[in-house]
Amino acid sequence: MKAGQCFFHIGFPKTGTSYLQSNLENNRKNMKAAGILYPQNLPVQRDLILSFLERPEEHSRSRAGPGRGTREAVRAAARKARESIERELEASCYDKLVLSFEDYAGVFESASLNIERIQDFLFGVAEEVFIICYVREHRAHTISYAQQRIKMGNLVIDDVLDHFPVLFRPALERYMSLFGRDAMIVRAYDSAGMVGGDLVADFRAACGLEDVPFSLCGAEGGINRSISLEAAGIGSAANARRPNFQDGRHTRPNPERATLHPLLESIPGAPFSLSGDVLASVREKARDDAAWLAEQFGIDFREYPDPTPAGIPEWSNETLEAVGVLLNDTKKERDENEQKVENLHRENEAYLDMLKECVNTCLETDHLTLAEDLLDRLTERVGWQKDLLKARMRLRLRQGRPAEAMAIKQDLFRP
């Protein structure tokens, strides 16, 4: 059974998508009671994107879970996602369906996209389809997104202009070509213009969910914590030497890379920003995109005030103390782990010596079956050590198998 309306939220990165999704999930039961379906879990919506692709196994999302490395497994996940949503719709009568995921905005970057599949699916589950998204002033967006990518190990500060700004027009034009201008609900990611000054309240108003009881959880910006300008400098330098992925490919994690973002978040300092020259370049590169957003949706980022450019890193005593404490604690933890490994090695050696003594006792008391079992376990664990070979030679003699004992003896004296 189709829903009356579908609100398809294409969440551009760093426009509050995680915050919005956590609140939608937190209020899913209230929405369901009001005849509004928000699918049960985010993996379903994550995998739904794969069903729009001719070759879903090539998409980065296909590697987001265990057992998805094969072509068949990836395609099965895509089918399962669609079927899960369709089953939920059939189980009850819903007035509205709400879907939300970040990659719904970036799906057009995939070479294997079958664009008609998006249209067919959405009109297959709802009578009326609306595309809703939030766009952000390009310089503020670049500051926020670059900071996130530096923190997560995927960007060097000097390379910002190679990856930014993100332009909103390409994805929005493609959705407009599928569903028409009247189906597009495009809002500015700016609390000053949001209903109640809050993203969730604004989204609810845009989708007609105001009458649904909502309990807010978390704080916007609290899910992805910011880092200081000094921490970003450290993170950027680490990314240059120890990037998150090898050869720039997200399929090959770098084994030498540690998880640094919790440490970077703990380093105080000046607020993160980008240089005035970089911000000016971002504005120029986004000029046409900003003009198009103003013309199509009345969102004029050209009138927005200039963001504060990055200053000179302060390296205050507080910052330096935090870095010193992190270095100390990291070295201390490393020393403790090395000691634990050494202790485990000693305990393992003592355990093996005990088992070897048990083998000798079994041989002396003619418990030959137990002796052989222990020898097999020891050999599997430590290999063909000389004392184990001698014990096995004694075992073969006790078992009345002198030829095998002689062969083992030859192995013992073989260079």
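[next item in queue]
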Amino acid sequence: MSRVWSAARDVYLSEAVEQSLAEGLVHPTRLDHWRLVTSLGR
């Protein structure tokens, strides 16, 4: 029997992300302030 471990973490965008957004770079802003975000894989 095997176990698959996944990590979940809270997402908070940093000041550096805010600055790069102002410069036109793309970031996943819809995830800002989400709790316990996991990967899409199973």
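[queue empty]
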